[in-house]
Amino acid sequence: MPKSRRSLLKQTEHDEAVKKLASRYRRQHPSATVYADASGFLKPRMIGSHRPDIIVVFRNGRGRIIEIETEDTINTEHARAQARSFRGYANLKGFRFDVFLAENIV
Description:
Blueprint: H1 8-28, E1 33-36, E2 54-57, E3 63-69, H2 77-93, E4 96-101
Parallel strand pairs: 3-4
Antiparallel strand pairs: 1-2, 2-3
């Protein structure tokens, strides 16, 4: 399945949102392990054929899988396929799964 295409501006917005949210988790939860598809972080593991933007694993074993989309990718088949894969994995692991719009990460 082809990846969704973002404009350069939207890709930059996406990448900055991933780094900002991952940094926030790292700062607010220093004992958690934060994986992010961003420089300065360990990369998240592949889940099926997709790599989530962020995985946070807390010391108590709970976790969170986070996918960041932009307004031009949120309603694509690629985003829906990722969400199905990540939600299924999150349910198996007892993690929470969330999708955020990059535009809303402040």
